[in-house]
Records
---
Amino acid sequence: MQFSPEYGRRPTRPRGGRPARQEHQRSNRRVTSRLRTKRPEIRMRVIRLLRLLVAATLLAPRIALAAPVCNFPAKASSALQRLTDVMATGRFVDYDPTSSQIINGHSSRADEESILQDLKVLRPRFDGLITYTSTNGAERIPDLAVQLGYRAVIMGIWDISSTKELENALAAVKRNPEIVVGLSIGSESVFSKRASFKQLADAVRAAREHAPDLAISTSEPFHIFLEPAAAQMLSELDFMLANVHPIYETWFSVAPDPNAADFVAKVTDELAALYCGPILVKETGVPTAPAGSGYTPARQASFYQALRQRLPPNNRRAFAYFCAFDAPWRLKDAPVLGVRPGPQEAHWGLYGEKRQPKPVVGTIPALPSSSKPE
């Protein structure tokens, strides 16, 4: 399985290029051609080196499987059980209030009545929420979600150094202990270079001291978790929240949707070789625009249909839908690593900014009263 050498909120090379397999084959042909021009002894050295590289590649997953990082939180076992129950028998969705905007890093406050209307729209198909921050009104999400029968909320803490944000989240836990099951400390903090692995691990430990009964994690693009330096952070996590976006892989524009779903499943397998706790793919999806880049409502619906078949949920592995509502304001958000948000960032939602359902919604079965998906 091949991953792009870099991964993030932008393609690693312009879309429309060769699929990874073709590029790999082309590279092989170039190497073979160069070898023919060298002396036999040099050619043999290169062949031996290539054999070693192939052997190392084949053995790497087995080495990882021999000693995955594990964390078994005794005090958080009840919360983790409730979280994994929703993974297996319900559905999580990533949620930002439609009444809140973040422009150039500055947030507006979310309106509680608007949040309630958002959650009413989502509730027939979702009973788990993952939020991104615990400020500017988002800390009230659990108070409103519990009124509508949601089963689980994983509260996000965007700024890992913010004492106030952590206090807001902990206050929400005290008000709603039956529904808040976990905390997500930071969102792509290492990837965006807002924190190091050590700083993130320290922040997770600090949160656990205040909330030992909660399941605690952090969210990063999958390739960050695969880095050797991530081991110190993985050992602190009660469960994993990974972002796996096939649209940023070079082959996406020319591959059928089952390939994209298969990619997400295989990445999850790779992560499970490194980490033995529950894995919830926090972000994965397909935007619905711009169509010129291959993003359409039909493709979004097709992707999730394929993913439900390829990665059926259980209490060890599941995926959340990314995300609840379109957010046009994202085009005015601050750059990440010097790159402005692309036009697709406004169109990830299952619903439009006015809460109008997109075609994908009709393909997601409603949850019965027992919250067990069909």
---
Amino acid sequence: MDVKCIFAAFIKSEIMSNGLLQGKKGIIFGALDDKSIAWKVAEKCHEQGAQIILTNAPVALRFGGIYELAEKLNTKVVGADATKVEDLENLLKESMEFFGGKVDFILHSIGMSLNVRKKRDYTDLNYEWMQTTFDISAISFHKLMQTAMKMDAVNDWGSIVALSYMAAQRTFPDYNEMAEAKSLLESFARSFGYHYGKKAKVRVNTISQSPTVTTAGSGVKGFGDFFDYADKMSPLGNASAEACADYCVTMFSDLTRMVTMQNLFHDGGFSSMGMAPEILDK
């Protein structure tokens, strides 16, 4: 590589990173493939100077390319079923051993509904599957925070973020019982955020993201049409996975130390809209 190429690479790296997370250590749940928001978050955190551990359910580790990402980011993968406390305990223990201390941030990017996958209508749900949806998509968040608190695994002024969606507040018929799962997720952020803030100054928030083209999101019935609708409805258009990752970086940084127990809309303005002329003119 000649001097010009080296200089260009250096300038590019300087533009990409200003060290917002320099010296910080975090755990990223849910990086399945390069379309997933968690994958983008992992890359952005690394660019901003953080060390990270990647984790996903053991069954998910057999798919996608998480080990490829780990190699790229010079880190390791620790499998963990987030519905099992013993797996979470092992994940946090291994992470602290790997980092040589506590973690500074955690991303919870976990969601799954068998009712959605099996295309069951909202008025004809399988209730055992619904319980599984809640356990994976929401209760796992409480289990993660409770386990981390008991193990004293997060540094003071640490940050925990979970990814949500506006169906927690509004009705989107084809989102099925995932809407209730996201409502529960956001409630856990508020309730546990109080306790974690009082005990260790750890902040807890959810980010309500635009419809995003991911492997999981694309499985929702009518996703393509709704993605286009939301894009037209939002003054800024739909927020991309990359933009969401940038937002997560700010939430993990020291710039947002006093933000907690919030559901933060990252959707190009969609959540504040009533009607858009672009929709009426269609």
---
Amino acid sequence: MVQKFEFSLRQLIVAIALMVLGAASMYAFTITKLEIAGKNYTSIALILSGLFFYSGILVIIGMYKNETYLSIAMLLPSILAVAIFVYGFIGWSIRVSLSTWKGLLPDYTWAGLSQYTYLFHDARFMIDVRNTGVFTVGFIFGCLIIGLGLAILLDQHLKGEAIFRGIFLFPMSISFIASGVVWGWLMNPATGSRLTGINLIFKYFHLDFLISTWHSSPQPWGMAFTVLPAVWQLSGFTMALYLGGIRSISDDLREAARVDGASELQIYRYVILPMLQPVTLLMLVSVAILVVPYLIQNMRTETEL
């Protein structure tokens, strides 16, 4: 198939100017340093120079009037960056893990799977695996269930829906770090005269039997308690995704199900939930909130194992 190419002298001049400027800048910053107020900005200047050069290439590719070529060209830098700095380093880490390298000096002597054999016989590592598993399962299913429940409630077109939607989404606007610090104070395991947060509220209302050591409780309950702030912060996000998915389902499908005699529960079970599988799949891979339990468990006391 012949690709359509529309030559434009103006675009060609712009492309050449950008490429020359980018190439000249890269050459200049490889032999000299860019220092401003005593700080070295050479690496940033090199990146910007490379962007100028690549912009010229994009201008030339744009003259082909082919969206596929242009899309691939625009995505190529990101694809290469991810391939090198994410998957490349993952591959390098795997290579190092198969060697006897243990200190600062590199040692590429082949060790095979002996490092992994030692790791899986380490009691501390197995505890970490268990804690991570408990948190991940509790966090994902907690967010899915609560988010779906809130989305179904909001889908009933209640009065003040926008207010409730804002309230449910509010935790997402809080920094993960700030959330971890606040929840670390609320779930402070200190006892006696040092009670704070939720435990202090329990004591004020004479509910001493509810006072807990929270994340310092014996495992797996300690990690289970750590799931609470994570679910609190992310359930609003899953609610928004589920609500968007529910609202995108045609009302004709619901009406057809009602005509066939289906109840509201059956409509959600057999019509709506199966069509929400893409949203559910998206949430199953959303585990970035793992930073919150790290902050909570390390800012106060060590978790009892």
